[in-house]
Structures are given as C-alpha cells and as structure tokens.
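call fold(seq) -> tokens
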Amino acid sequence: MAFGTQDEPDEVMNEINMTPLVDVMLVLLIIFIITVPVMKHAVAIDLPRATSEPEQSKPQNILFSVTADGSYYWNEQRIEDGELPGRLSAEAAKEPQPELHIRGDKAVRYERVVKAMSEAREAGVRKIGFITEPDQK
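ret:
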C-alpha cells in the first residue's frame, strides 16, 4: 500500500476538482465577450444640441497664391507687393481671424513664398496653411 494513491475504493475524496470549474468559467467568459456587442441595439438618433453661447460664424479663408513668375494673388485677384502688408493687417485685426491658405507654384522661387509668410507673421496672422496637390501615380 502506497501513500498518496487512491487505489482503495473505500477512501473518500474530500477535495474539489477545480479544473472543470475553471473550464466552464472560461467558456462562459468567452460567450459573454462575444454576445455583449451583439446585444447592444442602439438606434442612431441625431439629437439637437442646445447651448447658451452665441454661435460664432467662421470667417472665410483667404486664398493667397504665388504664381511661377512671382506674382501675388489675393482670392484670385492680382495684387502688388506693396498692397500685401495692408491687407494682411486688416485681416489680422478681425475677430475671429480668418486662415491664410498659401498656394505656391512649384516653379516659383522659395524666397517669394517666405517673404509673404514673413509679412503675414509681422501683420499678426496666426493661422497659416499650405495648399498642395497629391501625387498622381
């Protein structure tokens, strides 16, 4: 007769076998993980929003273009170099301030675009962006 074996049928097993219990719990956990997102039935409703703040209108963006020959265009209208600081100062004084979108020809000298950006910063324009075209492959 060896110790630790259960060869004798008269011995009572007084320990709970945890392996089947853990298996059942893991299966239930997996079932809940799968079924909870499916059970979430929500009707998509676009509810109105109410605020006590006045609605601020967004100003129209300024489209500033620099052509290949170095000419400046303000919203598709040609302007001279001397007009640029005055227009930029007038737009910088507005509240809310419009965005300045710069569109530069790829053949233009970099110096012309940097000059316009520098004048915009000096005038107080806070938002400057660039317009580019995606590569056509």
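The chain has a mean pLDDT of 84.
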